[in-house]
Design a protein that fits this description.
- The protein folds into 3 domains: 97 residues, PAS domain (Beta-Lactamase), CATH 3.30.450; 73 residues, Helix Hairpins (Orthogonal Bundle), CATH 1.10.287; 157 residues, Heat Shock Protein 90, CATH 3.30.565.
- Helix content is 52%, strand content 22%.
- It is built from 12 helices and 12 strands.
- Strands 2-1-5-4-3 form a 5-stranded antiparallel beta sheet, sandwiched between helices.
- A hairpin with a 4-residue loop joins β1 and β2.
- It is elongated and about 85 Å long.
Amino acid sequence: MPLEVAIALVVGAAVLWVAIVADHRRSRTASASLSLVPHRTRQFMEVIPSGVIVIGRDRRAAASNTLAVGLGLTRPDGALLGEVADLAERAWERGEAEEADVCVRRGVLGADTTVNVRVAPIDDTLALALANDRTEQRVAELTRREFAINVSHELKTPVGALVLLAETIETAFDEPETVREFAAKIGKEARRLSKLIQEIIEITRIQGSESVIDRRPVKLKEVVNEAVDAAQTAAHGRRISLTASCPASATVLGDRDLLVMAVRNLVDNAIAYSDEGGKVTVDVDTDGGVASISIIDQGIGIADAEQERIFERFYRTDPARSRATGGTGLGLSIVKHIVAQHDGEVSVWSRLGVGSTFALRLPLHEKLAS
């Protein structure tokens, strides 16, 4: 037998032996894992609405459900995220449950996910981990914190103005003209403060998951007419032509008062950001089971860079103009949330010096009923 053939046979036999040994080890590991966590228990783990991992002393997952793998805490081969393994070690060491928020990055370009993990020791060899995605909750907490800070900041301005005006009147009580002038300013700031508080209450209510529970058929013609009628005084004061057009049959399911508020906020904005003598039009069109409510103005317009931010709470494209008109910076945010509660969407088209068109798209009642 040639030397080369002999060497090849020896190498081939060695490779085959290594493969057999590796396969035996994998089978033994799998059998051990199955003996630690029976099949029925694994089935129960799959129906639990949290990530579930049974952790062994080898810092690997003896078993896990699909959700735990999806959260990125473990892999089907048993590999375990280091932070989770460390949490299990601390739980064994202290003999009690350990809990922590773990940051998981899914994929190379994936966004960070915040997962709350609680690990409790079962015995000296096993620990049980329960995991829940807290990313949305964390974002909500940050949003609430920012909202509280913004509210505090916004309240300082009218409250501070009221204090200064009151002090001025107190020192000029014997000057009727000054008293009347500053009393009028107090009234203006008080109305602005009242509007701000009311809109804070409204947006807090709208953001609640149960703000639109009892949905009823609502005729959009009635919604538009009420919103336009309520804004006619402001439009007349600035010599702005305000007209509306809506088919009588257009009907959606929802809360009539909230829909009126959304349209009214957009009409008020259109009037506030239009030059005197301009024109504001409210037009409703239906197509493909969707109603589109367009509020069109010929006002100052919105820069492209600001169009993505105008629906943020307290954001103002023109702060000075907002203060002059009593704007709070909450109107468009309220509109966005109301439309979302009605399974719709809001969009804007605008050009500086040309005007803006805000469009609300809502599913028609006929489409929902079919």
